[in-house]
Design a protein that fits this description.
The protein has a single domain (about 1-165), classed as P-loop containing nucleotide triphosphate hydrolases (Rossmann fold, 3-Layer(aba) Sandwich), CATH 3.40.50. The chain contains 8 helices and 5 strands, in the order E-H-E-H-H-H-E-H-E-H-H-E-H. It has helices at about 15-25, 30-40, 45-50, 50-65, 85-95, 105-110, 130-145, 160-165, and strands at about 1-5, 30, 75, 95-100, 150. The chain has a 5-stranded parallel beta sheet with strand order 2-3-1-4-5. Helix 3 (about 45-50) packs across helix 4 (about 50-65), helix 4 (about 50-65) runs parallel beside helix 5 (about 85-95) and helix 6 packs across helix 7.
Length: about 180
């Protein structure tokens, strides 16, 4: 069974995903990197040249291809991945889904260090970053809430997450 991490930009999906992959001795895959590789250009370039709708279609296709791969992996999804093209259903049918629920103030602090400029939907927010994140989270919460486990720790210690995964039913055989 795959382990798929969901959450807002800046929630730590990639950082924690790499640590979980190492802990469970599984491959790690960042869905945004997979989309960029398939598109042959960066995510900002895809957005700039083709728009969000095109990006979301590429993302949905990449997601379906990734979760169909044999063998378990740890997947860091894009922040909006679960919200389009029934992707949350695809994720829940193929993965143990984990929502990293990080407060907006923490997200804004993390992304305010230059991280927002690299993300097409946040690049133009400037001083309105926290308000934009709050608005985006409000729209996405209904999708994130469908994850099998919500983890609301801001520091994301692996030691705290592993017992929570086990209590939530993540396969014990994966807890190596």
């Amino acid at each position: 069974m795959h382990l798929s991490l969901l959450g807002m930009p800046g929630s730590g999906k990639t950082t924690l995903g790499r640590a979980l992959a190492q802990h469970f001795n599984r491959p790690f895959l960042d869905l945004d990197a997979e989309v960029a590789a398939r598109a042959g250009q960066s995510i900002p370039a895809v957005f700039a040249q083709h728009g969000e709708a095109y990006f979301r279609q590429l993302e949905a296709e990449a997601l379906r291809a990734v979760v169909a791969r044999p063998g378990p992996l740890v997947l860091a999804t894009g922040g909006g991945t679960p919200c389009f093209h029934d992707n949350i259903k695809v994720l829940n049918n193929s993965s143990f889904t984990l929502w990293l629920d990080v407060p907006v103030a923490v997200l804004a602090h993390r992304l305010g260090k230059g991280g927002a400029a690299k993300r097409p939907l946040l690049a133009a927010t400037g001083p309105g970053l926290a308000a934009s994140l709050a608005e985006t989270l409000a729209a996405r919460r209904q999708f994130y809430a469908q994850a099998r486990l919500r983890f609301a720790e801001t520091r994301l210690p692996l030691e705290a997450l592993l017992p929570a995964l086990a209590r939530a039913g993540f396969p014990a055989s994966a807890l190596v």
